[in-house]
Structure formats: C-alpha cells, structure tokens
Design goal:
The chain is of the alpha+beta class and about 270 residues long. The protein folds into three domains: about 50 residues; about 110 residues, no CATH class; about 90 residues, Endonuclease, Chain A (3-Layer(aba) Sandwich). The protein has 13 helices and ten strands. It has a four-stranded mixed sheet with strand order 7-8-9-10, sandwiched between helices. A three-stranded antiparallel sheet has the order 1-3-2. A three-stranded mixed sheet has the order 4-5-6. Helix 7 packs across helix 10. The radius of gyration is 23 Å and the shape is elongated. The N and C termini lie far apart (about 70 Å). The mean pLDDT is about 90.
Length: about 270
C-alpha cells in the first residue's frame, strides 16, 4: 500500500507517528510532501489535498470526532449539524470545540472517529433530548446498538436525563423527521401509532387517535411516480373513513405549533377525554 492509499483509508489525514508505525519511512514521507502528493498541515500532521475539515480538526486537536460531529461518520441520523466540532480528547482540547472525556469502547477504525457507543453516550449526555433521540433511534434501527445496552452504560443520578431520552426511542421511525413528529404528537397528549398497516391503504407513517392519518413527506414524494401513488393512497384513505394530513420537514422542525394546532383541529369533536 502506498502512502496516498493509506491516508485515504485513514480519512485523508493522519499524524506522522501513525504513518511511521504503519511501516512508511521518513524518506517516503518527505518525498510525498515535496511532490505535493500530501500536505504538511503542521509539524507531525500530514493530509491529502482537500481532506475533510472535520477529520482535520480531530487530528489537529489530538482527538476523535464524537457526539454530533461523529454521528454521520457512522451513518447515524442527525437533525442539525453542530455549530462546533465535538471531540473526544483524553487530555486538553482545542479552543472553540466541545470536548468530551470519557471513553467506554475504543474506536477500531483508522479514521479519527470515536466508536458508536462513545458517540451515542456523549450525544445522550450533551445534545437536546429530541436530537439525541434521533441519533439513538437511527442506531437502534440499524441494529448497531440496543436500548438495554445503552441503559446499562448510563448508571447513577448524573445519567438520569440521558436515560429519560432512551424512553423516547422505540425504533419504529424510518427517518429523523419521523422521530421528531412522533415525539411532537405524543408530547401533545395525542394517542399515536406508528407505521400502521391499514387494509386497502398500506403502511402509514402515523395513525392518530385511530382515525387521523399523518404522512411525513420527504424529497422522494416530489417525484411524479410517488405523487401519483400518494394521491391514490389519500383517496383510498378518505373513502375508507380516515382523515389525512401531510407535512414536510420544514413544517415539523420549524413550525411544530402550527402542525399540532391543525392536528387538533381535525381531532377536536371526535376525541372524548
């Protein structure tokens, strides 16, 4: 394996000591830097041109991407990109970053990214509960963790808030925005069923109070074939006796009060409390 291929496998950036331990010589490193094949970001750190900025920040900060900054590197859902880089640093840590200290499971990849367990535990302790629930839900859906596993690693009073977030996760959502919508409806006191298979209609995202179907539309719902399918499903739903509302990402994330108000407008008069 040549030096360029090694760096590609390591996320395009690595410390010189890591490269030397992999079997490359000082001469190979000097030649690659002199030719412009790799760049010296500072003494002891090499990168390929155009290396991802978050991975560069991790190596320069002598840490690993974790929490919201490490989530997408493991294919986990993220509701919002973080304003600051989150790093797992055993000692110190650069300014203008969010530093996490504790590590439960060592990372096993060449990239400077923490393990999924560490990313999830840090997210549960650090992020707003809805954003943390989104991240954990995706991990559960992927089968890379379980709720009992995470709960066991959050003992004591200091982790009480993090354990409460786990109660919001049920592993039924197909997307991050469905997690947000589910929590929104349940927080409003609405009886909410998810991914319900209705005869003659198929699976619906939400069935509220047994008669209101709510669908959350992603980008695929703008495609002509999907528009036609949605129209047929809407008609079948109404002809079967259900009410239907449809919302997009911006509605649920940026105007949740309006969504809940419209839902209650449909439910009002048919729900006896």
């Amino acid at each position: 394996m040549d030096l360029r291929r090694f760096l590609e496998n390591a996320g395009s950036v690595a410390r010189t000591q890591t490269i030397l331990r992999a079997g490359f010589s000082d001469r190979e490193i000097r030649n690659a830097a002199a030719s412009g094949e790799v760049c010296r970001l500072r003494h002891g750190v090499l990168a390929l041109p155009g290396a991802p900025s978050d991975l560069v920040a991790a190596v320069l900060g002598n840490g690993l991407l974790t929490c919201a900054s490490g989530a997408t590197r493991h294919g986990l859902w993220l509701l919002h990109q973080p304003d600051q880089v989150h790093l797992l640093c055993r000692h110190g840590g650069p300014q203008n970053t969010v530093v996490h200290r504790e590590s439960l499971v060592p990372h096993r990849t060449a990239e400077p990214v923490a393990s999924i367990t560490d990313i999830l535990i840090h997210g549960l302790r650090c992020l707003p509960e809805v954003e943390a629930a989104v991240m954990v839900e995706s991990a559960v859906r992927q089968g890379v963790t379980t709720l009992p596993y995470l709960r066991q690693r959050l003992p004591g009073n200091r982790n009480g808030a993090a354990r409460k977030v786990l109660d919001l996760v049920d592993g039924t959502a197909d997307s991050a925005i469905e997690v947000v919508a589910r929590l929104l409806f349940r927080a409003a006191g609405i009886y909410t069923q998810t991914q319900v298979d209705l005869p003659g209609i198929g699976f619906v995202d939400f069935l509220l109070e047994g008669f209101l179907i709510v669908e959350i539309d992603g980008r695929s719902h703008l495609e002509p074939r999907q528009v036609k399918k949605d129209r047929l499903r809407n008609n079948a739903s109404i002809l079967t006796g259900y009410a239907v509302l449809r919302y997009g990402y911006a509605d649920v994330v940026y105007n949740p009060e309006k969504v809940v108000a419209e839902v209650w407008q449909v439910l009002r008069g048919r729900v006896i409390r």
